Amino acid sequence: MIKQTLLENSVRKFMPKYFANVSDEQIEKIKNYIQAFTAHTFAGTPTGAVLTDATASEGKMIRPRLLMMASEYGPKRGDAQETLYKLAAIVEMTHLASLIHDDVVDDAPFRRGKPSIQSRYGKNAAVYAGDFLMSRISYHLMKEGLNRAGMVLSKTVEEMCSGEIGQAMCRYKDTVTIDEYLRNIHGKTVALFMACCRIGAMESGCSEQHAGILESFGECLGYMFQLRDDLLDFTDDKALNGKTVHQDFREGIYTLPVLIALERPGGRAALTPYMERSAAGTLTAADIRTMERIVAEFGGMEEAWKYIRRYQRRAEELLAFLPPCDAAPLLRKLVSKLGAV
């Protein structure tokens, strides 16, 4: 039942509809700024092709949408519209740069079911393109005088790097803890959600108190997003999220359901042979099916849902402290949806 519901409710598919307050016209303006900010003279080169592909992708624009929704709580939102569009473009560029670099680090042949950028154009072009995007982000933040937002985003990029480094240090580590895992996904995923909420609130004139509440809300949302996404690895549909089922486990990245099962009496003894085979590169499809059954038997998936619902309750509490606005009902519905099996 859990598997089927996850298949029907892929987080990347359903999230954008809960940002319906962000119109198609606004998204188009954000995309126009992305194109303007990433204009280059590399046409006809592999690096130019990477930049063109990355910035022309039909992504869900979740992070820009979140920034715009957070800005609806601010009393000066109307006066800050163009600045908000620029910042929404910049956070999406940050996300794109991180995806490009992830492809290189992971040596991933596919992303979301399509050939990855580095597999099509080579690692050098991918690295150059990712670095180019980051340099443009810094340039336009300074050019536009967006110093406060720039400080938030710079710290966020540091946290994203720390999350990736932390995850790399934990690969195939059979003693990795849930706390380590949560710290790593905080950097890899959660930090940028938090930044989107704080920047949107800050630039639209929210008080420091409300900006802090929205940032904490973004933290809950980011954890729910990532934890639910990790649970998708426990489905049988390879096409759902564009990666081989249990690719994380194969690569020695132990996500929350696995870590929970390891902590249960008997769970470590049951899972250790499959972790050792994963490290040795001898894991088979039958091993993966057995590993999944063990995780389920030791309550890994069910307990992971409890983590999601704890973040859901906290997110709902935070929203209750904010003033009413048009975005509020949609954000409450989104939180409820993310917490539903």
TrEMBL record:
Zinc listed as a keyword: no
Give GO terms for biological process.
Answer: isoprenoid biosynthetic process
A GO molecular function term, named singly, is: prenyltransferase activity
One of its Pfam families is polyprenyl_synt
Names of required cofactors: Mg(2+)
Coiled-coil residues are: none
Q: Does the keyword Iron apply?
A: no
Alphabetized UniProt keyword annotations: Magnesium, Metal-binding, Transferase
Identify its protein family: Belongs to the FPP/GGPP synthase family.
Q: What is this protein called?
A: Polyprenyl synthetase family protein
Which species is this UniProt entry from? Megasphaera stantonii
